[in-house]
């Protein structure tokens, strides 16, 4: 509707794009905004909680340690959203992975090194199945992954209704392993998350597969007319998301050292919110995985600030996330409206 | 071609599959609970499995019916669960502050406040979708995320319990031997059917869903229609929130209406309303919501461990969606029975004029194109 009314002014603005218009049209803008927001929040935190040790480098590193699993899940969601789809099954797959891992390690006595590939395989296979159905039967990703959400949460409960604590010594030694960085330390989970981020960055920006993801998200029809293997890419994207969710589940297991059928309920929303706050367009085709990193960091920082504040209750996290989400959606809207005219 | 035209017309009717699924689900119960269809009269109230299915399903029916209109305009509303929680929280916290919780005026005022909050949520969603042109999934995600936080803020993170007789009526009371909530649902559905099928409103909603821009050029105020639809959906969710909190006499900001948006969308899809918008079937949605509730009840009564509930639900989603997917039907059934006609592409105009009986089913589809 708004496009029609703005059309008359369009030619002028294209010929001599004003500085503001050029800035708004830049695809990197949301990432920059998110990074700035993160910095501002961090500085505000520094000034406000100076005496409570907010300035310790470890507080910053803890953002990665406490949100490593979310980062991995959000990276998976970035792939799906870039391709123009959506994956609602992320949280359930994470929950199922914690459950499966705990069950296989504790009840079946399998060594963790055997369990890890099994869990990753199950997650990737689940993602593959969803991608297969989405592509071959042309059902909306929303509904298919909704079925996935129900399925994996249900499978969680079938594995066990009770939570299973993991006492296995190799798991706890893995969970407690730390990499010293001089000023602080990072856990195994945080390092894996950063490696995943680096791989995703490489794949999305420097490989054929990455370009196909962007192309399909940008315009599926033209991608198809260009002869890109649309089906394979779509299925691969959901497989990547399933794999990332399973990996996030493993990291979550390490982080929390138990399996519970209700772990990570609603985590898909956190992941999607992180991706949106990171500046990826939900219509697909535009965004950066680095933005997702900042999105996750901002969400993590909200949690830390609320902890440092002390008087605020946990539900303020949800409200703050919602407000941020709203703000970034409006920024996205302003950007896309400019681009169309 | 062995099938008769009449049979084909029946199977092509948009209510055929949902009703068939519902009937099959109900019949599955019979071998497990012999008296499944019997309805007993105990101290003036009707009891029986069928009554309880409708009773426990009524919030879902309400939410799903509201969702149907939103989906018909090509949108989606993820925020209904949060709206359920907010309405329940506001109403219960107001009632619990009253000196006399049984006073009718206080209860009505509380319900009014709750419903106004729901309408405000709907207006916000409608504003974002229609005015700002944001994708519905995302616009409503905001309240879905923030709404539960707000609900917990209202209840202060506690579960507020109340003890109010008049308020108890709406979700747990009986009237004329039947649960009162059935009457509420019936009234809402009747009003909605009257508004959408007896006036041009339904047609307008479908045309906005079919092509919002074209409808605007024709002279339909599509923006207004969209906002109205979101407000209506939120209002339905608000009433459902009243029912849920009244049934348990408590407001739980965290768990009230949890995942009801997914169930509602599922009900709409089972009912045959396409998620791409452009046509809708209120009857189908009601049947779809009943299918979901029957499934839950069936799982309880036949003694399958309740934790498999979600797996069954997933199976139903997959089966229903596959059955509705033209590509799947063409692949599986098309090759076996006949090539081309009927189910595959016969749904559009080409095959329908042949048998007049199915024109009613085909009529809404024509509006889309």
Structure, described:
The complex is a heterodimer of chains A (341) and B (369). With 341 residues, chain A is mainly alpha-helical. Chain A has one domain: Orthogonal Bundle (ABC transporter involved in vitamin B12 uptake, BtuC), CATH 1.10.3470. Helices cover 75% and strands 3% of the residues of chain A. In chain A, the strands form two sheets. A two-stranded antiparallel ribbon of chain A has the order 1-4. The radius of gyration of chain A is 21 Å and the shape is globular. Mean pLDDT of chain A is 83; it is low at 1-15. With 369 residues, chain B is mainly alpha-helical. Chain B has 16 helices and six strands. In chain B, strands 1-2 form a two-stranded antiparallel sheet. A two-stranded antiparallel sheet of chain B has the order 3-6. A two-stranded antiparallel sheet of chain B has the order 4-5. In chain B, strand 4 and strand 5 (178-179) form a beta hairpin. Chain B is globular. In chain B, 48% of the residues are buried. Mean pLDDT of chain B is 79; it is low at 338-369.
Provide key terms for this protein.
heterodimer; A: 341 residues; mainly alpha; ABC transporter involved in vitamin B12 uptake, BtuC; two-stranded antiparallel sheet; two-stranded antiparallel ribbon; 16 helices; 75% helix; 3% strand; B: 369 residues; 2 domains; 69% helix; disordered C terminus
Spatial extent as radius of gyration of chain A? 21 Å
Task: Report the largest inter-chain contact.
Answer: A-B, 48 and 53 residues
Largest sheet of chain B: 2 strands, antiparallel
Radius of gyration of chain B, taken over Cα atoms and rounded to an integer in Å: 21 Å
- Global geometry of chain A: globular
Q: Under CATH, the topology of the largest domain in chain B is which? A: ABC transporter involved in vitamin B12 uptake, BtuC
CATH class of chain A: Mainly Alpha
The number of domains of chain A: 1
Give the ordered list of helices and strands of chain B: HHEEHHHHEHEEHHHHEHHHHH
- How many strands of chain A? 4
User: How many angstroms does the end-to-end distance of chain B come to?
Assistant: 28 Å
Number of helices of chain B: 16
Q: How many H/I helices of chain A?
A: 16
């Amino acid at each position: 509707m708004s496009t029609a009314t703005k059309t008359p002014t369009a030619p002028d603005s294209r010929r001599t794009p004003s500085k503001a218009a050029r800035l708004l049209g830049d695809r990197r803008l949301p990432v920059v905004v998110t990074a700035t927001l993160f910095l501002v929040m961090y500085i505000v935190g520094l000034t406000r909680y100076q005496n409570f040790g907010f300035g310790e480098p470890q507080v910053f590193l803890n953002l990665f340690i406490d949100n490593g699993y979310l980062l991995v899940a959000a990276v998976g969601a970035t792939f799906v959203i870039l391709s123009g789809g959506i994956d609602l099954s992320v949280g359930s797959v994470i929950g199922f992975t914690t459950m499966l891992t705990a069950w296989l390690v504790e009840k079946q006595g399998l060594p963790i090194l055997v369990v890890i590939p099994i869990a990753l395989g199950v997650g990737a296979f689940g993602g593959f199945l969803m991608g297969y159905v989405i592509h071959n039967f042309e059902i909306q990703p929303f509904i298919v992954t909704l079925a996935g959400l129900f399925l994996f949460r249900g499978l969680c409960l079938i594995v066990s209704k009770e939570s299973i604590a993991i006492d296995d010594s190799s798991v706890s030694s893995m969970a407690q392993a730390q990499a010293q960085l001089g000023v602080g330390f990072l856990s195994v989970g945080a390092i894996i998350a950063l490696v995943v981020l680096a791989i995703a960055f490489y794949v999305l920006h420097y490989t054929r597969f990455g370009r196909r993801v962007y192309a399909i998200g940008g315009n599926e029809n033209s991608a198809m007319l260009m002869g890109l293997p649309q089906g394979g890419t779509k299925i691969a994207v959901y497989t990547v998301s399933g794999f990332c969710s399973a990996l996030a589940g493993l990291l979550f297991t390490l982080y929390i050292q138990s399996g519970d059928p209700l772990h990570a309920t609603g985590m898909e929303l956190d992941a999607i919110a992180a991706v949106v706050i990171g500046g990826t367009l939900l219509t697909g085709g535009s965004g950066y995985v680095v933005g997702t990193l900042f999105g996750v960091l901002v969400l993590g920082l909200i949690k830390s600030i609320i902890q440092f504040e002390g008087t605020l209750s946990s539900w303020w996290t949800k409200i703050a996330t919602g407000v941020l989400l709203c703000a970034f959606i409006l920024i996205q809207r302003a950007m896309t409206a400019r681009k169309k005219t | 071609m062995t099938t008769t035209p009449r049979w084909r017309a029946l199977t092509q009717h948009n209510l055929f599959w949902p009703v068939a699924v519902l009937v099959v689900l109900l019949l599955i119960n019979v071998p497990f609970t012999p008296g499944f269809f019997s309805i007993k009269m105990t101290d003036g109230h009707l009891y029986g499995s069928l009554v309880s299915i409708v009773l426990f399903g009524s919030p879902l029916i309400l939410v799903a019916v509201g969702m149907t209109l939103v989906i018909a305009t090509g949108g989606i509303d993820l925020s209904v669960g949060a709206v359920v929680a907010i309405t329940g929280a506001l109403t219960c916290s107001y009632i619990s502050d009253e000196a006399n919780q049984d006073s009718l005026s206080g209860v009505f005022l509380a319900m009014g406040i709750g419903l106004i909050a729901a309408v405000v949520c709907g207006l916000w969603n409608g504003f974002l979708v229609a005015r700002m042109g944001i994708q519905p999934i995302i616009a409503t995600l905001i309240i879905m995320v923030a709404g539960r936080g707000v609900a917990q803020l209202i209840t202060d993170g506690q579960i507020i319990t109340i003890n109010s007789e008049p308020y108890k009526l709406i979700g747990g009371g009986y009237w004329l031997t039947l649960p009162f909530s059935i009457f509420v649902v019936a009234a809402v559905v009747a009003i909605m059917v009257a508004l959408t099928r007896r006036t041009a409103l339904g047609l307008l909603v479908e045309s906005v869903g079919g092509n919002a821009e074209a409808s605007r050029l024709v002279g339909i105020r599509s923006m207004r229609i969209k906002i109205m639809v979101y407000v209506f959906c939120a209002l339905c969710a608000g009433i459902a929130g009243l029912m849920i909190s009244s049934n348990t006499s408590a407001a739980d900001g965290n768990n009230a209406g949890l995942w009801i948006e997914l169930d509602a969308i599922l009900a709409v899809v089972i009912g045959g309303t396409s998620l791409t918008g452009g046509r809708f079937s209120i009857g189908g949605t009601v049947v779809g919501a009943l299918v979901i509730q029957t499934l839950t009840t069936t799982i309880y009564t036949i003694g399958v461990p309740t934790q498999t509930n979600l797996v069954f639900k997933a199976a139903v989603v997959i089966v229903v969606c596959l059955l509705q997917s033209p590509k799947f039907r063409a692949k599986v059934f098309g090759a076996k029975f006949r090539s081309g006609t009927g189910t595959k592409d016969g749904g559009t105009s080409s095959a329908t004029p042949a048998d007049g009986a199915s024109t009613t089913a085909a009529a809404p589809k024509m509006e889309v194109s």
